[in-house]
Specification:
- The complex is a heterodimer.
- Chain A has 4 helices and no strands.
- By secondary structure, chain A is mostly helical.
- In chain A, helix 1 packs across helix 3 and helix 1 crosses helix 4.
- Chain A starts with a helix and ends with a helix.
- By secondary structure, chain B is an alpha+beta fold.
- Chain B is 26% helix and 27% strand.
- Chain B contains 8 helices and 20 strands.
- The two termini of chain B are 37 Å apart.
- Chains A and B meet through helix 3 of A and helix 5 and helix 7 of B.
Chain lengths: 87, 376
């Protein structure tokens, strides 16, 4: 999956978790928590939404790498290849 | 809350329905609520058009229960602003002696006259039609009136705030609160959750919030005086433990949907229920069954907040439990001082029903349960 596609997938997952978020005002480098008050429930739902779309099972210890849009895309790009199981 | 507006039908006449299907959406002061059906059957007639304001209890549609006669379906009794919910079924068969036509309720008395287009637009914009000045024939509101009102007022949706104001003013006015606080060592709970989550797929992971809800629900078994309602000057204990959960909305304010019979659910189930409630609450799409008859409320600050909160009771409930943010602090354990994650747990109780002594024992029971998370 190319990076632009991956980015789009992450944004879709984010909007599924937080439909009240304004995607056009999204700052790719800032933490979701700062931008939209993301809490632990949002983080877990986000990880589940990514799992449903990409088949990736992200361990809890890696959650700190998913703080922002850029961070999430970077993490997924690095982990998808071999770890990916097609849903 | 005495009326609602039908926004959308999710079924068609003749459509087969099964228990739990969503049949319609209504707009209320709490946002849009999806109405579920509690019986299988086939939709007969839809009696109300989208955009229509309907009083609580009005007949919306008729359906034939599987293997039975067509019967009228009623609008849900929408919860009061206190978020106290009302458990009556949304679509209930009535006696066959009453033909559906007669049950098709008369339009509400105070209905505002407005063109269908105006009504639809007002719904889209979240504008209360009663606040719009009419320019149409016979005092009807036109589409232009709605647009004008929308342009003039950039009023934020004040409904959530006014609902909170109403319920909390009543609480402070009527309920003689007492407040208790304790500190719970969360080392065992958090370590167990971490182990659980490392061993389970993302879809089965837990948050400590689910354990807090479950421990409160379980601990209530021995404290019936904290679980129920104060109604008509006396306490009505509840056999069911339905835990209301205060959910913060990103745009401000909160809603308090509930988890029915939380004491009987597994931790995984409590977690799934919590996830569903948060998702639907924040999307403004709570279901009728989410607005369950909460018999007690849990308010949890989550991460990054202050250590302690002193919540006030949602009438007509008689107790509310507050959990602060978990903080790492020095803690005395086994003869030494260690750094431990600590949770402040508070109970606000209604002194007309319970005393500090039983409230204190209740918080101790919650603490004990959290020390043995594997048994929750």
């Amino acid at each position: 999956m190319s990076h632009p596609d991956l980015r789009q997938t992450v944004i879709e997952a984010l909007l599924e978790v937080a439909p009240d978020v304004d995607a056009s005002a999204l700052d790719a480098t800032r933490a979701f928590r700062e931008q939209f008050d993301f809490d632990s429930m949002d983080t877990l739902s986000f990880v589940i939404a990514l799992h449903q779309r990409l088949g990736i099972d992200i361990p809890e210890r890696d959650y700190p790498q998913l703080l922002s849009l850029d961070g999430t895309v970077r993490y997924l790009a690095a982990h998808l290849g071999s770890a990916r199981t097609t849903p | 809350m005495e009326s609602a507006t039908l926004t959308e039908w999710l079924v068609k006449p003749g459509q087969e329905i099964k228990r739990g299907d969503l049949v319609a959406s209504v707009e209320t002061s709490k946002g849009i609520i999806d109405i579920e059906i509690f019986e299988a059957g086939r939709i007969d007639q839809l009696l109300v058009a989208p955009g229509t304001e309907i009083p609580v209890g009005a007949v919306l549609a008729t359906y034939a229960p599987a293997g039975g006669e067509p019967s009228p379906a009623a609008a849900p009794p929408i919860a009061t602003p206190a978020m106290r919910a009302v458990a009556a079924p949304s679509l209930r068969p009535t006696s066959p002696a009453m033909p559906p036509e007669q049950k098709a309720a008369a339009p509400p008395e105070a209905r505002v006259r407005a063109s269908p287009a105006a009504r639809r637009r007002a719904l889209e914009l979240g504008i209360d039609l009663s606040a719009v000045s009419a320019s149409g024939a016979e005092g009807a509101i036109t589409l232009e009136d709605v647009e004008r009102r929308a342009a003039a007022a950039s009023t934020p949706p004040a409904d959530t705030r006014s609902a909170i104001a109403k319920a909390m003013s009543r609480s402070k006015r009527e309920i003689p609160h007492y407040y208790l606080a304790t500190t719970i060592d969360m080392r065992a709970t958090l370590a167990w959750v971490e182990r659980w989550n490392a061993a389970h797929a993302v879809t089965e992971r837990l948050l400590s919030g689910a354990l807090l809800v479950k421990s409160v629900a379980r601990a209530l078994a021995k404290f019936p005086e904290l679980n129920g309602f104060w109604l008509d000057g006396r306490f009505e204990p509840s056999r069911e433990v339905n835990v209301g959960v205060a959910i913060r909305l990103r745009q401000g304010g909160l809603v308090v949907p509930g988890i029915p019979r939380a004491n009987e659910l597994t931790l995984t189930n409590v977690m799934q229920q919590l996830q569903g409630l948060v998702r639907r609450a924040r999307a403004g799409r709570l279901r009728q069954s989410d607005i369950t008859n909460a018999t007690i409320t849990v308010s949890s600050l989550g991460e990054g907040g202050v250590e302690t909160l002193y919540p006030i009771i949602y009438p007509p409930q008689v107790a509310i439990v507050g959990f602060g943010s978990i903080v790492t602090r020095p803690w005395h354990a086994g003869g030494s001082i260690v750094a431990a994650p600590l949770l402040s747990a508070t109970l606000s109780g209604d002194h007309r029903v319970s005393d500090g002594q039983s409230g204190s024992q209740f918080l101790i029971a919650v603490d004990r349960l959290l020390q043995r998370p594997e048994e929750l």
